[in-house]
Amino acid sequence: MSKFGALVMGPAGAGKTTFCNSLIQHLQLNKRSCFYVNLDPAAEDFSYEPDLDIKDLISLEDVMEEMGLGPNGGLIYCFEFLLENLDFLTQALEPLSEEYLIIIDLPGQIELYTHIPVVPTLVNHLTRFGSLNVSLCAAYLLESTFVVDRAKFFAGTLSAMSAMIMLEIPHVNILSKMDLVKGSVPKRQLKRFLDPDASLMEDNNNNHNPNPDEDLPGGADPANAEFVMGGGSFKKLNRAVARLIDDFSMVSFLQLDVQDEDSVAGVLSHIDDAIQYHEAQEPREPNDEVDYGDDGMMME
User: Fold this and answer.
1) What percent of the chain has pLDDT over 70?
2) What are the strands of the beta sheet with 52-53, ordered from one edge?
3) Would you say the C-alpha torsion 168, 257, 296, 270 has a positive or negative sign?
4) What is the pLDDT of residues 5-49, one digit of tens each?
């Protein structure tokens, strides 16, 4: 029996949990079943209580206290512990039918899926090597305010591309918090960031500095952030990153405003297409009804 899921990830502050909440609300309004999995061992406040929470297995606070680790080291330890206890996931997800959309909320430490093979190993268990056989799509969120700083935007885009290569599953990249840039960034300019290419960085360099390859002025303090960020070497690095992304031509973005129901529906439709959700569904009778519990989550 097929299962379907979305792996929600991205850097800290990108709005992953807020997107999960909006997605759950939209699914409920459209009478679709969902199963919410929290895999952030540091998360505490939820608008919708997770159906499965990693903190029932291990919490970051306990790891930091007992192992003497910092936040990043503790988080890696939590995921390594999860990989040693994958039955925790399997037993909860095994009974789910193909009608459910499994929403998996990941923490914001991008090194988990770009630098070390922790999340890729988890994805392999969910999709290929385990018994679950989940058709999984990654939803990578990047905050739309990054477009104001193009170097920062391309760094975020590079992390999205790295995740695409590491995970090897269908990918939907999303510019979140679009409400924060409406009115401050012209629509025509914003559209250029949906399919990023190297010309964005070239235009930015030409607008700010007619000699983009000029390095630090004589006598400048190399430890001064302002000089470093404006130096020729830094700009050369940014142009190289932009050209690398342009050469691969893998990354494009959808726009997301969680306050706009149509925006959430548009992103969900791309996720559904990527995992071929609707092709596996049986036609529902017009009189079929879906019951919800007191907590608002769909009952089996």
Assistant:
1) 84
2) 52-53, 34-38, 101-105, 3-9, 134-143, 171-176, 253-255
3) negative
4) 999 999 999 999 999 999 999 999 999 999 999 999 999 888 999
Euclidean distance between CA atoms 7 and 26, whole angstroms: 17
Crossing angle of the two packed helices 232-248 and 199-208, in degrees rounded to 10: 160
The tokens for 70 are: 């910092």
Q: Pairing state of beta strands 134-143 and 52-53? A: unpaired
Q: Which of 298, 276, 262 is nearest to 24 (CA)?
A: 298
Higher pLDDT, 184 or 138: 138
Locate 169 and state its tokens: 């599953």
DSSP letter assigned to residue 126:
I
**Average pLDDT over every residue of 159-168:** 92
CA separation for the pair 221, 15 (Å, rounded): 37
Q: Note the Cα 1 to chain centre separation in Å.
A: 26
- Please give the Cα distance from 132 to 122 (Å, whole number): 12
- Given a cut of 90, whether residue 284 has pLDDT beyond it is no
- 276 torsion bin: left (phi>0), alpha (psi -120 to 50), beta (else): left
Q: Torsion-angle region of residue 68: left (phi > 0), alpha (psi -120 to 50) or beta?
A: left
User: Could you tell me the two tokens for 267?
Assistant: 């992103």
Contacts of 181 (CB under 8 A, 6+ apart): 144, 145, 147, 148, 190
What is the per-residue pLDDT for 130? 77
Q: Is 241 left (phi over 0), alpha (psi -120 to 50) or beta?
A: alpha
* CB 43 within 8 Å of CB 17: yes
> Could you tell me the pTM of the whole model?
0.85
> Locate tokens 């036609």: which residue?
283
